Amino acid sequence: MQANLTLPAINLAEIQDNLPYHKVKITGQFLPNKDIYLYGRRSMSSEKDGYYLVTPFKTIEDKVILVARGWFSNRNKNIITQATNDQPHEIIGVTMPSEKTRIYLPANDIKNKVWLTLDLKEASQTLELNLENFYIITEGQDISNLDILLPLSINDLAAIRNDHLEYALTWFGLAISLIVIYMIYQRRYMAVDVIPRLDRWIQKNN
């Protein structure tokens, strides 16, 4: 992966193996009103809670690719829609694989555009688009030039992934904790209520 990131950006058609972690450049336009807010804490910001702005991008080759454009804090969620227009742009970024839905995570909140897992098959169905089987994390400042949308960096690729996965691990820990609490409750319920009632029933019917 690291070797690919140090090379100049190439066109999508030059990717022979169709594998992720290629530095690419694409030209086209964003599709308005189809943004996804991918939840992820950001270690590089004083405001931790927020989202990665992910928008479908239609290339001049008629391919549609989800693009992670930057990070914004939760308090700016209501105005981030200003970031998307349908003007032509060239984008440089890194191709990334689809994420897998995990059973211990809540379902994506489609109504409010808040996603916990960037499952590209689910995104294709939800957005009613024929998406490519990878998405792109952009390099540098977003074309919107909005101050509220913090730029991403290829050099921080590992941190970006970890910031997003941190939330998944938090949910996993919470799920385990709830299971433990439920088991403790069930054991106490059996000891205090069910077993004594069963003993009384046995004694009564003997």
Task: Please give a handful of descriptors for the protein shown.
single chain; elongated; 25% strand; cell membrane; 7 strands; 206 residues; alpha+beta; five-stranded mixed β-barrel; Surf1/Shy1; membrane
Terminal residue distance:
73 Å
Give a quick account of the main beta sheet: strands, pairing sense, barrel closure.
5 strands, mixed, barrel
Which secondary-structure class do the elements indicate?
A: alpha+beta
Strand content: 25-35%
Shape: elongated
Order of helices and strands: HEEEEEEHEH
The pLDDT mean sits at: 79
| Number of structurally distinct domains | 2
Proportion of helical residues: 25-40%
Individual helix count: 3
Report Rg.
Answer: 23 Å
Family: Belongs to the SURF1 family.
Subcellular location: Cell membrane; Membrane
Pfam family, one: SURF1
Main location: membrane
Give a structural overview:
It is found in: Cell membrane; Membrane. It is a multi-pass membrane protein. This is SURF1-like protein. Belongs to the SURF1 family. The chain is of the alpha+beta class. It folds into two domains: 159 residues, no CATH class; 41 residues. Helices cover 30% and strands 25% of the residues. It is built from three helices and seven strands. A five-stranded mixed β-barrel has the order 1-3-4-7-5. A hairpin with a 4-residue loop joins β3 and β4. The protein is elongated and about 80 Å long.
